[in-house]
């Protein structure tokens, strides 16, 4: 049976969702999708505005970290492929 591969974007999303605390995901969705303020989210969750900001920052740092890891690896693969191609061309010259 052939194994199906997933896109780098899907891989990143799956890893982020698996690693993120559910409450941080909720805060991120409330901020980014619903457009709620830190204060409004804090009032709803029983947290201070500063704690909501910290958790939002933690969630965004995780996203940044995973995307950098996933896509930097892809860039390394592309770079190595290009180097091999250049070496083959140089051998033919």
Structure, explained:
The chain is mostly helical. The chain has a single domain (8-92), classed as Winged helix-like DNA-binding domain superfamily/Winged helix DNA-binding domain (Arc Repressor Mutant, subunit A). The protein is 81% helix and 0% strand. Helix 3 packs across helix 4 (49-92). The longest helix has 44 residues, at 49-92.
Task: Indicate the mean pLDDT.
Answer: 87
Overall number of strands: 0
Which CATH class is shown? Answer: Mainly Alpha
Helix share bin: over 70%
Gap between N and C termini, in Å? Answer: 42 Å
> Which value, in Å, is the CA radius of gyration?
20 Å
List unreliable stretches of 5+ residues: none
How many structural units, i.e. domains? 1
Q: Biggest sheet: strands, sense, closure?
A: none
What's the overall geometry?
elongated
CATH topology: Arc Repressor Mutant, subunit A
CATH architecture term: Orthogonal Bundle
Quickly give the structural class: mainly alpha
How much of the sequence lies in strands comes to: under 5%
Please tally the helical runs, counting DSSP H or I stretches of 4 or more residues. 4
Order of helices and strands: HHHH
């Amino acid at each position: 049976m052939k194994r199906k591969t997933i896109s780098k974007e899907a891989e990143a999303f799956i890893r982020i969702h698996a690693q993120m605390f559910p409450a941080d995901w909720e805060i991120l969705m409330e901020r980014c999708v619903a457009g709620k303020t830190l204060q409004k989210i804090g009032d709803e969750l029983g947290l201070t505005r500063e704690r909501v900001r910290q958790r939002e920052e933690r969630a965004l740092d995780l996203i940044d970290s995973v995307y950098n890891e996933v896509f930097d690896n892809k860039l390394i693969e592309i770079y190595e492929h290009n180097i091999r191609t250049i070496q083959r061309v140089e051998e033919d010259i």
